[in-house]
Amino acid sequence: MNYHDERQKNKIFFGFREVIEIKEISLNTYILEVSLSPELAGSAPGQFVYIMPKVQKRILLPRPLCIVDVDKNSLKMIFKVKGRGTGYLAEVRKGENLSLMGPLGKGFETITAPSVLVGGGLGVSPLYLLAKKLNSEFGDKGVKAIIGFKNKAEAFYVEKFGSLMSNVLVCSDDGSLGEKGNVVEILEKNFNGEKVVYACGPRPMLKAVSVFTLGKDAKLFVSLEERMGCGMGACLGCVAKIKTENGEEYLRVCKEGPVFDGHKVVY
Q1: For the domain 8-104, what is the CATH superfamily, name and number?
Q2: What is the pLDDT along the chain (267 residues), one digit of tens a residue?
Q3: Do 112 and 41 contact (CB within 8 A), yes or no?
Q4: Where do the structural domains in the chain lie, given as residue ranges?
Q5: What whole-number distance in Å separates Cα of residue 213 and Cα of residue 216?
Q6: Which of its termini does the chain have fewer beta carbons within 10 Å around, N or C?
Q7: Architecture label for domain 110-223
Q8: Distance between CA 122 and CA 126 in Å, rounded?
């Protein structure tokens, strides 16, 4: 297997970027597109940005948003409205300037080996840029994606994955889209001895993927989500317990992560 890891080589941008587009792409889920900078152009799959509307509206902390795509002119992020902060972000309009810092964190490694991408809900977001990178570096052969949602109303980027990859399995909890079931069940039925699994989604889903892949001679990379304070590793507000050579340690999701060896995360 050949490793390609450029997760900590990007420079960080801090300043204002212009909103190119914002729209709701599924139930309470929005895509936000902003103008690019040289630093943002180097974003790796799995990295994130820290972002806040120009008018802070009594929101103390910025919000970490996953990078879903980067092209020659713009950077795209996907977020779900869950509270006041993301609610205010959903109200920004084209032409508005947003305070932004990024790209931040360690993203996914890319490995030349048969691979599976497993995404649940909003966790589908970082896997799209990863799929693009795997496709451009190694081709479509040997890579498949399993993406799942609660229902059809909450699904997004299904057609995008389909246009990018030839092997995409879609499921939903209620059967309203694709096969009925969750992504772990679909993975268990369709695992063909792939050597690498990339996963992002709710913590119970990641734990189940870890349990399933353990002992199957497959590397597992998972992207964790935690509430963040500073986004730079100084406040220690987003730690996760990880098994290391020194025992179990608390590592910063914003700095040492958000992507970790999934078999070393203490779920």
Answers
A1: Translation factors (2.40.30.10)
A2: 433 344 455 689 999 999 999 999 999 999 999 999 999 999 999 999 999 766 555 666 788 999 999 999 999 999 999 988 889 899 999 999 999 999 999 999 999 899 999 999 999 999 999 999 999 888 878 899 999 999 999 999 999 999 999 999 999 999 999 999 999 999 999 999 999 999 999 999 999 999 999 989 999 999 998 877 777 778 877 899 999 999 999 999 999 999 999 999 999
A3: no
A4: 8-104, 110-223
A5: 5
A6: N
A7: 3-Layer(aba) Sandwich (3.40)
A8: 9
